[in-house]
Sequence to fold (236 residues):
Amino acid sequence: MAIEGQLNEVERRLITEAITQAAKKPVVAIEVGTWLGGGSTLHILRALELNGAGHLWGIEADRSIYQRMLANIREAFPAAENRFTPLFGFSDDVLKRWKTEQPTNTIVDFVFLDGGNNPREQIEEFELLDPLIPLGGQLLSHDAKIRKGRWLVPYISRLDNWESRLHDVSENGLFYAKKIAARPSSQSLRAAKWHLFRQACHPGEIAASYLPSSVCGFALRLLPKKFSRKLSDGKN
Ligand SMILES: C[S@@+](CC[C@H](N)C(=O)[O-])C[C@H]1O[C@@H](n2cnc3c(N)ncnc32)[C@H](O)[C@@H]1O
Fold:
C-alpha cells in the first residue's frame, strides 16, 4: 500500500543508503516531522528492517497528522511494533523528555530533521541531540536550501568535527553530515556561532520571530501569491 509522504525518489534513496551502508548499523534513530509517514518515516523503517537492527523514534507535532501517520505506518509497515516508537509533541519538549527517559549512556546513531519552518528549531534540535551522537553518527536534514535549514546547514558546515555536504537533488535540498571527531576545534565553533549570531540578527528573522504570526500572515497576504510563498519558505 502506498501512503502519502514527502521527499523525492533520490532523497528517499539517500536516506535509505545512509542507513544500509553505514559502517556501523544504526541502533537508535530519531526523526523530527513524520508528516503522514510515507516519506522519511517509512523509508528509515524499511532501511532499519533491511539491516535487521535499529529502532526509530518519530516526532510529530500536529495531532490529526500524528493520528493519520500512526494508522498509515501500522498498515504499510507490519514490523512497526518492534522498530518504531511515535512521539507526539513539539520537538524541543519531546526531545528533552525523551533524553531523561533513556539510560544515561544512550547514543543516537542516526538523525533526520524535517519539522517546522523556523530555522531556530533545527538548531535547537541539533543542540539537544549532538551530545548523544557518536563518531560516525549521521545527521540528515531536509529543506536545506530554504528557510527551515538556513541556520543549521552553515552552522554544521563550519564545525570541523562534522563532514558534510548539501545534496542539491531537489528544490528544497537534502543536507548530509557525519561526525568525524568528538568535538569541534574552538576556532571552528567560534566561526559557526558567529555566523549563526549574524543570521539571527538579520532584520527579516527578527521580524519573523517577534512579530505576531497574524501580522506576518496579514503582510504576506498583501503580496502576490507566488512572492509571498517564496518569502515564507525563504526561497531565493
Ligand atoms: C515537511 S513535513 C515532514 C515531511 C516528512 N518528513 C516526509 O518525509 O514526508 C513537516 C512536519 O513536521 C511537523 N512539525 C512542525 N514543527 C514541528 C516540531 N517543532 N516538532 C515536531 N514536528 C513538527 C509538521 O506538523 C509536519 O507534519
Q: What stands out?
A: Residues 5-7, 32-35, 39-40, 59-62, 65, 90-91, 114-116, 121 surround S-adenosylmethionine (CB under 6 Å). Residues 9-201 form a domain with the Rossmann fold fold (CATH 3.40.50.150). The first strand starts at residue 28 and ends at 32.
